[in-house]
Fold these 2 entries.
Entry 1:
Amino acid sequence: MRLSRAFLPTLKETPAEAQIVSHRLMLRAGMIRQTAAGIYAWLPLGWRALQKVEQIVREEQDRAGAQEILMPTIQSADLWRQSGRYDAYGPEMLRIRDRHDREMLFGPTNEEVVTEIFRQFAKSYRDLPRNLYHIQWKFRDEVRPRFGVMRGREFLMKDAYSFDLTKEGAEHSYRQMFLAYLRTFARMGLKAIPMRADTGPIGGDLSHEFIILAETGESQVFVSQDLLDMDPLAEAPDYDADLAAAVGRWTSHYAATDEMHDPVAWEKLEASKRVSARGIEVGHIFYFGTKYSKPMELTVQAADGSTVHPEMGSYGIGVSRLVGAIIEANHDEAGIKWPDAVAPFRAAVLNLKNGDAACDALCDTIYRALGDEAVYDDRADRAGVKFADADLMGHPWQVIVGPRGAAANRVELKRRMTGERHEVSPEDALAKIKG
Ligand code: 5CA
C-alpha cells in the first residue's frame, strides 16, 4: 500500500479520552475510530491486524477439530426463554423489536442458537462428538465500556460449542480447546496463563480463563512463576490422544483470579515463586453439562437405545480485545512493536528523498518484491515524519532508503522489535524480511 494513497489517518496528539496505552496507540496509529460509546470502526491498519489475529484463531480451532460456521448476530427472544436466560441476562442484553413487534436481541453469546441448530440435526450417538465455532460480532451493553476495544460494547468473539455423549467425552473436548488456546495465544507472541475461573452468566462447574499479565489488566491474578516459565509451543498436542496429562501439566501449578484465590494454598507456595499481578482475560472456556441441552430438549439416542441430553461446553476468545492486548504487551514510547505473526504489514519501505531517481527506483523495486505485505512511504514528507509514523504503526521491518545509500545500492534495515539497524544490500533486506 502506498502511503500517498492510503487511508491511514495517524494522529499527532494523544487523544485525551484514552486511558491506556493500547487505546492511545490504536487511535494515534489510525487503526480504529469510535462511532458511539464502546463501538468502533476498524480502519485499514486495524482491520488487517484484526484479520491476522482472527486467522490464527481459526487455524488452531480447525487443527483441534472444530468446524467453522457463521450464526447471525440477531437472535429471537423465544430461544432465550427456552433456556430460561432471557430474563436472567439483565440490562447487558440489547433487546430489539421488529416491525411485527416480535422480541429480538443482538446476541451477547450463542449457546441457545447453536443448541437449536444442533437439535434439528442430531439424532443418535453417531452424530457426536461435534464442535462448532464461529467468529462473529457480539453486543453487550457494558456498564462501563472503556479502554477502547478491550472492553467494548460491540466486539468480535470466537465462540465454539462442543456436544458430547458423556461427561468423559465433554472433558476430552474441553481439554482439546484448553490446549488449542495455549497454542493460539503463543502464536501471537502472548503468554496466556490458564486460571480456574468463575462461570458467571454462562454457568457450569468447570471453567478456565486465559489471562495475559499486563499492568493495565482489569483482573487481579495470582500465579506461580513455574507457569510463566512453561512453553506452550514446546510440544504440539495430538488432539486424539489422552490429553489429561498434557492439561495436567498446566493445571497442577497455582494460578487463580481474585474470585477463585485461595490464600492458604498461596502461602504454601515458595515465596520466590509467587507472582501477583494484573491481567487481561483473552479467553474463557466452560464445561456446563446439560445446562442448555436439557431445558431446550436437545436429545440423541445412545447405543443402548436410551435417550440422553448431550453434554456441552463453550469456548470463547476475545478476538478484537486481543488486538489491544497484543499492543499492551508490545510497545515503547514511539509506538507499536508488532510481533511478526499478527503485524498488519510485514515491512515499511521509507523513501527519504522522493524525486531522487535512484531512491525512487530502488524503493519501487523493493516495494514490488514485497507485494501486499508492505507499505511504501512515498509521501512528500520530511524523513522525520516517516520515521515517526513507521515506529508508531509498528511494522516489524523498516527498509530505509536514502539518496547516498541508493546510489551505492545499499539500504538500512531496521528491526522494530529490537531497534537493531544494519546497512545491507536490497537483496539481503528482502531475504531477511521474507525469511
Ligand atoms: N459463551 C461463552 C464462551 S463462548 C462466553 O461468552 N464467554 S465470555 O463471556 O467469557 O466471553 C469470551 C471472551 O470474550 C472473553 O474471554 C473476552 O476475551 C471477550 N470479551 C468479553 N466481553 C468483552 C467486551 N466487552 N469487549 C471485548 N471483549 C470481550
Entry 2:
Amino acid sequence: MRSNVDTGNLVSLQSHILQEEARHPGASGDFSWIVSAISLAGKAIAHKVRRARLEGVLGDWGEQNVQGEEQIRMDVIANETILRCLGSRASIAVVASEEDEEPTILRTGKDGGKYCVLFDPLDGSSNLDACGPVGTIFSILRNDASIEGAEATICQPGMKQVAAGYILYGPSTAFVISTGNGVDLFELDPFMGSFLLVKQGLRIPSGNRTYSLNEAYTESFPKGYQRYLSWAHGQGYSSRYIGAFVADVHRILMSGGVFLYPPTSKHPDGKLRLLYEANPMAFIIEQAGGKAMSSGLPTLGLHPQRLHQRTPIIVGSADQVEAVAAQVHQVAEWHP
Ligand code: P6P
C-alpha cells in the first residue's frame, strides 16, 4: 500500500500515531498520549535551543550532573521541559533522565502506571556554544508492576523497548521514532507547529565506507579497534565526527557508515549510557536494517544493572559493523 507520504498527503505525527493506534484494536491510547507529550517537549526545546544564546542560557549552570559533567543551563531547561510534559500523562509509572541521579516514580502499576520513559534531554549539549546539532533521545518501556523498585523496573534489555527515538535540533528539527514496525521520520514545520511525516520505513544504506569516532583516543583503544582503524585507513575510508551521538547516528541512519565509541582509559566501559543513549539508538538502527554491538554482543540483548550504566558501542550499517567486528574480534564471518 502506498504510504501517505508517497501520495503527497499531509500527515502529522499526531495523526500518524493515531493511525498506528487504530491498527491495534483495544489500544487504550495511553501510548499515543506519551508520544504526544514527547512531541510537545520537542517543540518547546527546539524553540528554546534556537533562542539559547539570545536568552543567555548557554552558560554553565554551575553544578555537575550525576555523571560528574558540568551542567549547562540548556541541559537543565530541557530536562525540566520534558518532565513537565510527561508529568501530565496518567499512564506513566516511572521517568528516568541522564540529568537525575535516581528514577522518579510518578504512579504505581495499580494506579495506572503502564509505561516507563527514559531520556537524555539534550545529548551533545556542549555543541550548543558552536551552534552545533544537539538532540533529545527517548526510550519507552512497559512498567512491570511485579518488579520491586524503580531502577530494577527500568533495567530491561533494549529489545524490550516498546518504542524509541530522538528529536534532532539541527538546521531543521527532525523527529525519528520506531514502535517496532520500522522507522519513521518527521520534520517540524515551525509555522504549523506540527511534526510532518516525510519518510516511512527508513532503511539504512550499506556500502558507505565512513567511520565516526574520536581518533584522539586511539592509543587507549583496545588493540582490535586500533587494528580496525589501520585497516580502514588502508581501505580509503573517510571520517565524520560531530561529537553528538544523536547527530552522528542520524547521519549514519540517512547515509550509512558506522559509529564507534570503544573502551578508553578514561571510560573503560565506554562513554555512552546503555539505557537512554545506546539502547534507543540501537533500536532505531536495527529497525532500519542496521546492527549494534557492544563488547562482541548485540547491544539490545545486554541486561542492564544500573540506570547510568555505560557501554562501548559499534552501531551502523550491517556491512560496516561486520567490517569492524572482523578486525576487532578477528572473526572472518560475524553472525550473532
Ligand atoms: P567525546 C556528548 O557529550 C556525548 O555524550 C555523545 O553525544 C558523544 O557521542 C560523545 O559524548 C562524545 O564524546 O569523548 O568524543 O567528546
